[in-house]
Specification:
Helix content is about 40%, strand content about 10%. It contains four helices and four strands; from the N terminus they run ββαββααα. The radius of gyration is 14 Å and the shape is globular.
Length: about 80
């Protein structure tokens, strides 16, 4: 039986497998899960996934923020609904 590698969310410490990555339940490049990102999206004190605060031309949104790729994905998904 093959052993599946698991990765752990750095915020909630839940463990995820490769299937979770394919299903966009875990983002290995940030080591944060979709549950924690969903909480950040709801939190008014953070800029994550806030269309009015996102500026693709700004240095923070385009280069510095470690969540920039996932944030952009969440904003796109908001407009798809």
């Amino acid at each position: 039986m093959a052993m599946s590698k698991t990765l752990q969310c750095t915020l909630c410490e839940e463990k995820f497998d490769e299937k979770s990555i394919k299903e966009l339940k875990f983002f290995p490049h940030t080591m944060i899960c979709s549950t924690c990102y969903n909480e950040a999206e709801k939190d008014k004190s953070v800029c994550f996934a806030k269309k009015k605060q996102y500026d693709k031309k700004s240095l923070v949104c385009s280069k510095i923020c470690p969540d920039r790729k996932v944030c952009k994905l969440y904003i796109r998904m908001q407009h798809a609904n």
